[in-house]
Amino acid sequence: MKITELMTEDIMCLELTSKTKKEVIKELSQLLFDADKISDLDKFVTEIETREALSTTGVGYGIAIPHAKTKFVKTPALAFGKSKEGIDYDSMDGENAHVFFMIAAPADGANLHLQTLAKLSRKLIDEQFRNDLLEASDAKEVLKVLSKIDKEEK
Amino acid sequence: MAKIVGVTSCPTGIAHTYMAAEALEKAAKKAGAKAKIETNGSIGVENKLSTKDIEEADAVIIAADARVDMARFDGKPLKEVSVSHAIKNAKALVDEALAGNFTIYSKK
Question: What pTM was estimated for this model as a whole?
Fold first, then answer.
């Protein structure tokens, strides 16, 4: 499965308005809900927050990857958000997060999307890739950066 | 060539497992060592360590917030850390492994 099949322009927001961790979780979840990717907004948000409570998904380098694998997800999807100012996301390195990937995975069904998300996670270790993401200014550019993952072998 | 093996695992098994594996593999490569990292994620176990892999390994790194089958590492120099620690400090962990600073693991 291609990453560009999981992320479409309707679930991308290049100018997040949120200022806090709680707000940004809500804002990204709302995108997924409006695009009919999740069935219950509040319950999905709770699942995301439960995962954050175990350990933050603010992995540092300005990136956060809130995620949940739950029955409230109808279709696997990857929402994208960007904040110019940055948001305090309890990141591991103490820095604000600027780039957000919200992963919505269904509880069961095919696992093809998990391979794709695993590839994305691995790629986030690559500094050049992160910088390209931070510099991308519109949805098309972001998708172009991400499409590199689709082209690469694992 | 020195060889490091490891296992990564996280609660949801979607993201950190793979980030940590990639970080450790990259750090090992940079340090001129071989690395094989098993990922215990939601896809299941991938890149599973064989008995031979473990025998050959000079050091073992376990980066896990979820349960990992540990008995197979009996007698090996080993260090256990959280998965996020491994993402953040991959280089330091690999350096420590290669310097032979891990303690010998013994199954209880």
Answer: 0.86
